[in-house]
Amino acid sequence: MPSKKAPNPVDVHVGSRIRLRRMMLGMSQEKLGEHLGITFQQIQKYEKGTNRVGASRLQHIATILNVPISFFFEDAPGVGEDQPGFAESQPTSYVVDFLSSSEGLALNRAFVRIEDSRVRRRIVDLVRAVAGEET
């Protein structure tokens, strides 16, 4: 029995970044598909990394989601690793995972709408206390 080939990690990463940005904008898979002239099922396949996004399609997605193409490759596996210089270390993937979750996205959206910086600081302190982290 032939085994099914696993998706390329970069394709999975690009798909997760498409999903992240789409969710940040509150856009459905169906709406993004309509803009691209494809089905929401195809968007699902892109977001899971099971189908690779072509260059022209990625350019169109970047335009619709109002981000530069480089957004989709930030923190991609194998990109910028083991390169000497003064570059800062890449952020860990838990940030992307958090913002890709519905809870993380909802929390982030609500948090950025709080105008009073003192209130935001107190919320951060509260969350740290609940998590058992010292401030």
Describe this structure in words.
Helix content is 58%, strand content 0%. It is elongated, with a radius of gyration of 18 Å. By secondary structure, it is mainly α. The chain is built from seven helices and no strands.
Taking all residues together, what is the mean pLDDT? 84
Helix-strand topology string: HHHHHHH
Structural class: mainly alpha
Number of helical regions: 7
Number of strands: 0
Beginning-to-end CA distance, first to last residue: 55 Å
Radius of gyration: 18 Å
Could you give a short account of the major beta sheet?
none
Unreliable stretches (pLDDT < 50, length at least 5) are none
Shape, per Cα inertia axes: elongated
**Strand-residue proportion:** under 5%
Compact summary:
The chain is an all-alpha fold. It has seven helices and no strands.
List keywords for this structure.
single chain; 135 residues; mainly alpha
Write the layout of secondary structure elements.
Layout: H1 9-24, H2 29-36, H3 40-48, H4 55-65, H5 93-100, H6 102-112, H7 117-131
